[in-house]
Amino acid sequence: MKKSNSTPNKIKAKLGLKGVSDPDAAKAFMTSYNGLLNNPKYTNPPVDLAIYKAGIDQFSALIVDAEDGGKKAISAKDKQRIAVSKLYTLLGHFAETACNERSGNFQHQRFYAGGSQSQDCSCAVD
Q1: Residue 60: CB partners within 8 Å, gap ≥ 6?
Q2: Alpha carbon distance 86, 70 (integer Å)
Q3: DSSP strand E in the chain: where?
């Protein structure tokens, strides 16, 4: 007889960006923003998406400014990365909760599903 598991497989977003380059982090932020924007499956995110987008844009601009190696520019970029990473984490946890344990729903948020679900969540939004 087949054993049934009464608890669903929990979908977890892989949100850690430690060791990821700044341009790749900016790409991950923008990809998650695009997946959340105007998506009827996920309403009322915990972060205003306009604020999130403004943070991403500022981080992207600071990446370019920091290329010259100036200490102030690098410090500002690092602080902005931390700020946007916190928003990214909040939105990732929101997507985990709001997906109702359906990996198809989660895919639309463009976060990477870790844990028991091991698929790249970079598909286009319906």
Answers
A1: 26, 30
A2: 25
A3: 11-13, 113-115
Whether pTM > 0.85 for this model: the answer is no
> In angstroms, what CA-CA distances link 111 with 11, 26, 29, 97, 114?
11, 13, 9, 13, 9
Q: Which two three-digit tokens encode residue 9?
A: 């497989």
Domain boundaries, the chain: 20-115
Q: Which mean pLDDT values do the consecutive 10-residue runs of the chain (126 residues) have?
A: 60 76 93 87 89 98 95 97 94 81 50 43 32
Is residue 39 a contact partner of residue 125, using CB atoms and an 8 Å limit? yes
Residues 52, 95: contact at Cβ < 8 Å? no
Q: What would you measure as the largest C-alpha separation in the chain, in angstroms?
A: 66
